[in-house]
Amino acid sequence: MTQRKQKISLVLGSGGARGYAHIGVIEELEKAGYEIASICGSSMGALIGALYASGKLEEFKEWTLTLGMFDVVKLLDFSFTGKGILQGDKVFSVIEKIIGDVMIEDLPLPYTAVATDIIKQKEVWIQKGRLLDAVRASIAIPTIFTPKEISGRHLIDGGVLNPLPIAPTMSDATDKTIAVSLNAQIAKKYQIDIPKTEHEKETKIQKIFFEMAQKTERLLSKEPQSAYDHMGMFDIMGRTIDIMQHAVLECKMAGYAPDLTIGIPHNACGFYEFNRAYEMIELGRLITKDQISI
Description:
Elements: E1 7-12, H1 21-31, E2 35-42, H2 44-53, H3 57-65, H4 69-74, H5 89-99, E3 111-117, E4 122-126, H6 131-138, E5 148-150, E6 153-157, E7 176-184, H7 196-220, H8 233-255, E8 260-265, H9 277-292
Parallel strand pairs: 1-2, 1-7, 2-3, 7-8
Antiparallel strand pairs: 3-4, 3-6, 5-6
Helix pairs in contact: 1-9, 2-6
């Protein structure tokens, strides 16, 4: 007799580039026989969740792993509104081509994207409407992407108020809730073999982003650089967001506890190191294999 698959509610947390680990987590959970019956995400977690729910995760993964340095540069559209460094239209046009014009109500499983209303200072659960709009709102990292307006609300990154949104899944008729935190404190070190081609690509992209950061700082800074010369603007912003999300996460977890938390180390990569997709995907896979075998 075939054993019934365990149905799970999957909660995907925010944490910038570490969110690529969600891909490895999902692949390993499915390999272990779990059925993802509901998905909820904040920021990068909302994006990966949307891709999975629409059946486009593998296509996105392949696109991400083949990005060259010129491809990355072409996706950067600077904003002159003063509300964010990037407009975000170029990268989201690519994501739209992958996902398509899909409504949340038409997805094969319940989906929730969590965002933050910057005016009312409230957490917003987006469970209907255009899928891409929901993702765009949830992933609007403060100072980087401009806010997204939906129904008169100006929405930004869901991780500001809820980096691991477990509450929306509490009423799900599933066997258990599994949450993936991207801000975990983990002492164990994981060895990941990175192909030479990935190393070469990573070095080139790092150089581009370093030069961009330096140019941006010179444009925005009103004072000479100080003893913190080794830290760029993006490093400071990334660390600030990480600190904030870690503090918020502790409070949220006290109120809503999942059946299992899969923790990705907060120092696995920088918040903006989106060039490390391969490494993060593999890390997510390895940690998940460890966690579900306990």
